[in-house]
Automatic annotation (TrEMBL):
NCBIfam families from the UniProt entry: pepcterm_femAB
Domain of life: Bacteria
Lineage: Bacteria, Pseudomonadati, Pseudomonadota, Alphaproteobacteria, Sphingomonadales
InterPro entries named in the record: Acyl_CoA_acyltransferase, BioF2-like_GNAT_dom, PEP-CTERM_FemAB-rel, PG_Glycine_Bridge_Synth
UniProt source species: Blastomonas fulva
Sequence ranges assigned to domain BioF2-like acetyltransferase in this UniProt record: 173-306
Protein name, as recorded: FemAB
């Protein structure tokens, strides 16, 4: 549900949290845990993992009332890139992580404070991904560019795997059945081999799509930071990894976040097996919902998720730009990047893997 910040005449105090203080850290973590709308991207460990692996400053803004009680939180990353410029984003490398607040006054105060931080960091753009949205003409609300896809998993119990398969629409179910006949092996874990194979598959996948790969350190930091709330599921054929995905777990919901497959995956239906196996794996872990993540409206990924039986829900982001500054464009589907994408797809993989993190690190 979207929340718009109403005008207010009074505002609580806002400051940067001192996360090096164990008491402050525990207090903030408990408050985040108490918020039903909080996501995995609001967790302090997510913010720190991004900062540690990319070098982008992590700034935890908190709002407090006159009695000193927490009333709001906004995790920010100060993203800097020679190619894409500077931006303040909430949260970095995430699809959510915007303002958490118990009231409109706190939300507005956090939005105002975030813009002040953006100016201090010489960042002409501030992006709030989800959460409370400022009701202010200085902000642009985008609600038609991306959609999220979330659905309930079938209840665990006898024949649950079969019931999950039957939940999938007929045409997509037929693709899964073809994959099940291909003698594919599924492995889950977070060990060195899981990480190595996942990055190799993911890097190949995004190179084939024409986009630079994120730094491996980012994946490592997220896995280490989230601990038991993250893992990797890999699909192998003849002991060769052909599809792999890094998953996030939060309050009974699994989100396949960074995943892909090599060219052979399509013919083997390895990606179909990957997501079906993840549904079953997550259910056995106690999850009840499957969050297929966001996709750009009209994209192939958007259509793929609809084919799986997921209904799209619009995602809204708030963006503020400095006067006279154009919005930051990091959308890989943007026409301005068409030539670069075509060239990137032709790069030898070792070169793409060496150059890619240098570029993608600045996307945020």
């Amino acid at each position: 549900m979207l929340h718009f910040v109403p005008p207010t005449c009074t505002a609580p105090s806002v400051r940067l949290a001192n996360l090096a203080d164990p008491q402050e850290r525990a207090r903030l973590s408990a408050w985040i845990d108490s918020r039903e709308e909080a996501t995995a991207f609001h967790r302090i460990v997510w913010g720190e993992a991004v900062a540690r692996s990319t070098g982008h400053d992590f700034l935890a803004l908190v709002a407090e009332d006159a009695a000193g009680s927490l009333t709001g939180y906004l995790p920010l990353h100060a993203v800097h890139s020679a190619l894409f410029g500077r931006a303040m984003v909430s949260a970095g490398f995430a699809v959510d992580g915007g303002i958490l607040a118990s009231d409109g006054a706190s939300a507005q105060a956090l939005a105002d404070a975030a813009w002040q931080l953006a100016e201090r960091y010489s960042a002409p753009t501030l992006e709030l991904r989800g959460g409370w949205l400022p009701d202010d003409p200085a902000w642009t609300i985008k609600s038609n560019a991306h959609a999220g896809f979330v659905a309930d998993l079938v209840a665990d119990g006898p024949d649950a795997d079969q019931k999950q398969l039957e939940w999938v629409p007929r045409k997509q179910r037929a693709e899964v059945r073809k994959g099940l006949a291909n003698d594919l092996v599924v492995r889950t874990g977070t060990g060195a081999i899981d990480r190595e194979q996942h990055y190799a598959v993911y890097a190949t996948s995004v190179r084939n799509l024409g986009t630079p790969v994120f730094p491996r350190a980012l994946f490592e930091a997220v896995l280490d930071g989230l601990g038991d709330d993250a893992d990797i599921l890999t699909v192998l054929h003849d002991d060769i990894p052909v599809a792999s995905v890094l998953n996030l777990y939060h309050r009974g919901t699994v989100m396949p976040f960074w995943g892909g497959g090599v060219w052979a995956a399509r013919g083997l239906r390895a990606n179909d097996i990957m997501y079906y196996a993840l549904m079953n794996h997550a259910r056995r872990r106690g999850c009840t919902r499957f969050d297929f993540g966001r996709s750009k409206v009209g994209s192939g990924a958007f259509a793929f998720k609809k084919n799986w039986g997921f209904e799209p829900s619009p995602l809204s982001y708030a963006i503020r730009n400095a006067d006279g500054q154009p919005p930051r464009d990091v959308n890989p589907l943007s026409p301005k990047y068409r030539l670069q994408i075509a060239l990137w797809q032709r790069l030898p993989l070792p070169i793409a893997n060496r150059l890619g993190p240098l570029i993608a690190n600045g996307l945020g």
